[in-house]
Amino acid sequence: MVPGGDSYQLPLTRGESGRIDNEGRSCGDKKVSFRQAMQNSCNTTFAALAVEVGADEMQERAERFGFNQEYLSDVPQAVSVFPKEMDAAQTGQSGLGQFEVAATPLQMAMVAGGIAHGGKVMKPYLVDELRTPQLQVLDTTDPEQLSRAVSARTARELTDLLVATVDNGTASPAAIPGVKVAGKTGTAQSGIDDVPPYAWFVSFAPANDPEVAVAVMIQSADIPRGEVAGGRLGGPIAKAVMEAVISR
Known about the structure:
Helices cover about 30% and strands about 20% of the residues. It has seven helices and eleven strands.
């Protein structure tokens, strides 16, 4: 069981400006199962848990997944940011990707891939192999582990929650008949006036023997601001990519 409820008041704050809500999603009273919190994308749960974990541990864990660092060799890279030296209110916001959290689609694909790979985050690369004009292989890139983000047990437990989110939650648009899919939605504020939220979706499949991890980010959907949702917009795209890879 984890914290639930319709709203959560961030520490050090008063009034509406410091209140987190779930936009009408079912998140129990004071307590809710972690499965239900994940399925319904309960902001109140993840804000409260972030405060409980603390700023330093949140930052350290995010950096294990690749935040705040460059990991592409000899290629310019936008660094994904997890803020440092946060107070308790900012830490709560970071638990649902607010405050100054910023991530690239590659970074979020690494997060999904790290869970799929039993908690091991692999270093991304752009070139798999070099060949001559006669197609003889000159050189190949060997897979390299960047870090261990979480234990294998934690990765398995989180995978179960992500599968439940696709089977019975906000990530259902990515469901593939006959295939276990793990997925999570996200709707991120752009932080820019008159720019709508970004719709996010991360996933991997098959969940019991992963072949592909996908991150989808839709920067500008031509629909009303209040209708932007990661599952609705990003789920079908992720599903199409996963189906294409699995069916090869």
